[in-house]
Amino acid sequence: MPSDDPFHRAHRDFEALQIDEQAQFLIQASASTLARGIEQAGKVLAAGLGETMHRACASTTPHKDTPHKDTPHKDTPDGGGPGPAEPETAQRQAPPQRPDAPEA
Question: What's the per-residue H, E or C state across 5-62?
Fold first, then answer.
């Protein structure tokens, strides 16, 4: 006679189910197991990437041509980086009106 441990009890209970209940149980158990595995793999991956990024950031030194975040940029008076790349909205030209377009 098999022992009365949880595995054997679950096995006996499974065998007592109807075939459609067994199929449903197997699908749910498979999905649950797969989800737990993906979650665990994600946690391991996140921890590994975090550790790698931490080591990479700790081991890099600023390049002599790269200004430090507290050093003003030489091209702008406020030190906030490059100047505006586009004209202000009021300075932009409106797109030309098509002759067949309805008036707004």
Answer: CHHHHHHHHHHHCCHHHHHHHHHHHHHHHHHHHHHHHHHHHHHHHHHHHHHHHHHCCC
Helix, strand or coil, per DSSP, at residue 89: helix
For the record, the structure tokens of 73 come out as: 């940029």
- In angstroms, rounded to a whole number, what is the distance separating the alpha carbons of residues 39 and 57? 27
Confidence grade of residue 43 (pLDDT, cut at 50, 70, 90)? very high
pLDDT, tens only, 5-41: 999 999 999 999 999 999 999 999 999 999 999 999 9
Q: How far is CA 49 from the centre of its chain?
A: 12
Residue matched to tokens 């004209």: 87
Contacts of 3 (CB under 8 A, 6+ apart): none
CA 102 vs. chain centroid, Å, equals 45
pTM of model > 0.85: no
